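Q: Please design a sequence for this.
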């Protein structure tokens, strides 16, 4: 009965945790790393084919985005999550695959011109389609028996449509333990979705710490603040560009703008147009509008009961084709453009930034977290110019941030959630936060709330039955080096592939226990022969 911390350990991205119980191997999330990360995660300590199932907290790609890669490398188990998360992943994982394929093709074209080897995508659409067939939808609050050693229950955590913390009951021999995985704890009083639900008890808790060292600030009136931003930008004849995550944040913005229009809070611009320029966001909006009402808060249900669509209003346009997207920057009508990606590192929003960032009458309005190393963070931090599609673009537009609009609980919200347990957990593991955030939250839990809290680095292992660490690792910082030459990059890539092959050889060797002596001797001879050749 052991847990190994792999991803999002002293980092805010790439969530992945390995749980071993009763001979079964289970992953909690398998997310993609995004933006600059501070610490290197350890590789999976087991072969992908030996993982029996995945428990998925929610659909955001830093929790789900590498599931197609897991499938590509041999995983064929089941993926348990809520039905809404399953529906959103249908959109998001296909999009991840398309981005991987598009990026690989772009890099391959450049490589061919330089006489270098082509670049293969990390995974492709076939891998995404394959892994989507492994999903199993679960209801909130209903226990699901995964095996004789593991029973789980998904509980609404209020972060995204369908998001959940996962309660896990572990059985091994005569030992029973309960562990709770928070996933991303949601902010309170968000539109559309419900507030995080409480969990009564647990022996162990693994909780996120994205905002573990800070508060969102006094809760402002989102509607009036947003209306003010829109009013002054349209008054000066500019466009409001809103880089927004396609799933979750875009739908919140539509909800807010509908209320602004209903209340007539923007004057002199009757019927001002709003464009959602993101095919994925448009698909996700359809999922929101068609979901089971168990995922919705009471206010949204009331809007629907009154016969109104909470995400639709006069002047809303959903663009699909690239031609429609380009046309948004050729007409002079002031407008709102909501486009992904939320951190400006990909997607159509980069085109809108190219055509609007240099215009002082326009506004770029950030409505979500901007990770270090992303284009969005550079603009938010005050860059005077940025490079877009090979051109240097001046940042003359007004740059604003809508405070308090975060899908994550702040420090106060996180403390409120963990204090909601009726009895203090035996131990709290703090993850999914940068170095300062996770260490501060762990310190606060220990010193101010009397909890046994620890922020593990990647590779740390803990025996859940014995209640003690098997291994405590030190973080391996990501080295920041100057751009290497093409030859150096090829050599480094070849070396990484060699190390990966060696790791796979070790895993294969470990699976040979019990094999016939003759076969073991043959394999040993092959390995020895290979190493002797390498010495020469």
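A: Design:
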């Amino acid at each position: 009965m052991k847990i190994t911390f792999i991803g999002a350990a002293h980092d805010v991205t790439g969530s992945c945790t390995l749980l071993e119980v009763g001979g079964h191997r289970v992953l909690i999330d398998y997310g993609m790393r995004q933006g600059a990360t501070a610490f290197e995660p350890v590789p999976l300590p087991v072969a992908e084919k030996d993982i029996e199932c995945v428990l998925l907290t929610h659909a955001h790609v830093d929790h789900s985005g590498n599931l197609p890669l897991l499938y590509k490398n041999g995983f064929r188990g089941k993926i348990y999550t809520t039905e809404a998360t399953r529906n959103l992943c249908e959109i998001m994982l296909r999009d991840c695959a398309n981005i991987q394929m598009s990026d690989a093709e772009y890099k391959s074209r450049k490589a061919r011109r330089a006489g270098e080897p082509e670049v293969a995508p990390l995974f492709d659409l076939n891998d995404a389609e394959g892994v989507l067939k492994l999903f199993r939808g679960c209801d909130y609050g209903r226990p699901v028996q995964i095996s004789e050693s593991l029973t789980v229950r998904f509980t609404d955590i209020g972060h995204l449509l369908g998001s959940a913390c996962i309660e896990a009951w572990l059985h091994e021999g005569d030992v029973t333990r309960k562990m709770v995985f928070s996933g991303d704890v949601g902010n309170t009083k968000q539109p559309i979705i419900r507030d995080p639900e409480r969990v009564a008890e647990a022996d162990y808790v693994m909780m996120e710490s994205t905002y573990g060292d800070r508060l969102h600030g006094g809760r402002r009136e989102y509607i009036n603040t947003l209306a003010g931003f829109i009013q002054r930008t349209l008054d000066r004849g500019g466009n409001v560009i809103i880089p927004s995550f396609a799933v979750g944040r875009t739908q919140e913005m539509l909800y807010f703008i509908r209320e602004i229009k209903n209340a007539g809070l923007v004057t002199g611009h009757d019927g001002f147009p709003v464009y959602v320029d993101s095919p994925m966001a448009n698909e996700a909006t359809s999922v929101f509008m068609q979901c089971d009402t168990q995922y919705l808060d009471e206010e949204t249900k009331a809007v629907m009961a009154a016969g109104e669509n909470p995400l639709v209003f006069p002047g809303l346009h959903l663009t699909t084709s690239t031609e429609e997207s380009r046309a948004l920057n050729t007409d002079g009508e002031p407008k709102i453009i909501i486009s992904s990606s939320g951190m400006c590192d990909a997607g159509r929003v980069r085109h809108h930034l190219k055509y609007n960032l240099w215009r002082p009458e326009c506004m770029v309005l950030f409505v979500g977290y901007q990770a270090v190393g992303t284009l969005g963070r550079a603009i938010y931090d005050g860059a005077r110019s940025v490079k877009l599609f090979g051109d240097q673009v001046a940042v003359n537009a007004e740059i604003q941030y809508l405070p308090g609009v975060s899908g994550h609980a702040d420090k106060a919200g996180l403390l409120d959630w963990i204090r909601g347990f009726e009895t203090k957990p035996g131990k709290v593991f703090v993850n999914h936060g940068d170095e300062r955030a996770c260490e501060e939250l762990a310190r606060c839990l220990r010193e101010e709330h009397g909890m046994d809290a620890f922020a593990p680095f990647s590779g740390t292992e803990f025996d859940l039955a014995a209640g003690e660490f098997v291994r405590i690792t030190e973080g391996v910082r990501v080295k920041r080096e100057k751009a290497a030459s093409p030859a150096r990059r090829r050599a480094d890539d070849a070396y990484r592939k060699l190390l990966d092959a060696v790791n796979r050889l070790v895993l294969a060797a470990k699976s040979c226990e019990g094999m016939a002596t003759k076969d073991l001797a043959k394999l040993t001879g092959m390995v020895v022969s290979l190493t002797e050749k390498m010495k020469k």
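Q: Thanks. Anything notable?
A: The chain has a mean pLDDT of 91. The radius of gyration is 25 Å.
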